[in-house]
């Protein structure tokens, strides 16, 4: 009898009813892509946090006998015109690129979200003044606005972060204002007013807590755009002037050798592409998870 039971499927041998979490589920293609994107993003973030553990060479080590060598076992991404290991440069260069991306998204989200929240909740003259300023900023393309600010302030890490953040403030402000306007007149807000809750309490306890999720999704997706803008400014020579270049500066340094040493600028470009695609996939998944209509 025991042998007969052991050959039955698991759902026939289980004594208690199976829970849904115990039933194996096959991952679809989109979920597999999201998991792969998360792995790629975490690896690149790990490169930025712990480059000395991942890079096989020092980014400043110049090997005079291995100038512009093609990718090999010794140098996975090849070497540049100084004999530096491209893989090590890409690993160490990820730190400044991600600092620019994350810091600009954080600054732009906080400033733009605050402007949009106050504008939508207070309304009246405050809304008119804030939105007219945002309208003026939105008439200027984001990359052009960031380029003008970076050129005026000069090549410095803080200036680059400020330039990229300023270009994203109008989008965050518009999104947050729309969310506040759609929430502040709902029935549960009216009920809170009727029992004597203050405007400040209603704003922080009920309105703001229900309006932050679209801003979070937009920040996740905007991270890739911020890294692209920062790399573009570095490519144009407006980035950080350091001994260890970031991804945009690596692209700029290798463009003159594209026909003779394609790997110098190809692999930094692939790093930017992979990270941007990864965060966009994660942002799309996050949007589907937080949007009640998608659920």
UniProtKB/TrEMBL annotation:
Membrane topology type, per the record? Answer: Multi-pass membrane protein
Q: Name one GO biological process term.
A: transmembrane transport
Q: Where, by residue number, does the polypeptide cross the bilayer?
A: 32-54, 98-122, 129-151, 215-240, 260-283
Q: Which UniProt keywords apply?
A: Cell membrane, Membrane, Transmembrane, Transmembrane helix, Transport
What does UniProt give as GO cellular component? plasma membrane
Name where it's found. Cell membrane
Instruction: Quote the PANTHER family the UniProt record gives.
Output: D,D-DIPEPTIDE TRANSPORT SYSTEM PERMEASE PROTEIN DDPC-RELATED, OLIGOPEPTIDE TRANSPORT SYSTEM PERMEASE PROTEIN APPC
The superkingdom listed in its UniProt entry is: Bacteria
Q: What name does the UniProt record give this protein? A: D-ala-D-ala transporter subunit
Primary location class: membrane
Q: Which residues form the ABC transmembrane type-1 domain?
A: 94-283
Pfam families on file: BPD_transp_1 (PF00528)
Family, similarity comment = Belongs to the binding-protein-dependent transport system permease family.
CDD domains listed in its UniProt record = TM_PBP2
Q: Which InterPro entries match?
A: BP-dependent_transpt_permease (IPR050366), MetI-like (IPR000515), MetI-like_sf (IPR035906)
């Amino acid at each position: 009898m025991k042998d007969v039971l052991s050959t039955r499927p698991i759902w026939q041998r289980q004594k208690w009813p199976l829970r849904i979490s115990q039933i194996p589920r096959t991952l679809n293609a989109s979920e597999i892509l999201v998991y792969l994107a998360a792995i790629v993003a975490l690896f690149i973030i790990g490169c930025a946090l712990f480059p000395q553990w991942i890079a096989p060479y020092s980014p400043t080590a110049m090997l005079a006998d291995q100038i512009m060598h093609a990718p090999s076992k010794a140098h996975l991404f090849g070497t540049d015109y100084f004999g530096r290991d491209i893989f090590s440069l890409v690993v160490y260069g990820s730190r400044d690129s991600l600092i620019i991306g994350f810091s600009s998204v954080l600054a732009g989200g906080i400033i733009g979200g605050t402007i949009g929240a106050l504008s939508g909740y207070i309304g009246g003259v405050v809304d008119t003044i804030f939105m007219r300023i945002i309208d003026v900023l939105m008439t200027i393309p984001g990359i052009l606005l960031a380029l003008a600010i970076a050129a005026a302030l000069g090549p410095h890490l803080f200036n680059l972060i400020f330039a990229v953040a300023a270009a994203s403030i109008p989008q965050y402000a518009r999104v947050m204002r729309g969310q506040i306007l759609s929430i502040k007149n709902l029935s549960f807000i009216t009920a809170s007013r009727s029992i004597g809750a203050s405007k400040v309490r209603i704003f922080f306890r009920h309105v703001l807590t229900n309006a932050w999720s679209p801003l979070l999704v937009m920040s996740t997706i905007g991270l890739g755009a911020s890294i692209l803008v920062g790399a573009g400014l570095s490519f144009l020579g407006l980035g950080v002037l350091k001994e260890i270049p970031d991804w945009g500066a690596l692209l700029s340094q290798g463009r003159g050798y594209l026909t003779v040493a394609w790997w110098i600028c190809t692999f930094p470009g692939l790093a930017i592409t992979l990270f941007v695609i990864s965060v966009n996939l994660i942002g799309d998944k996050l949007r589907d998870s937080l949007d009640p209509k998608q659920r």
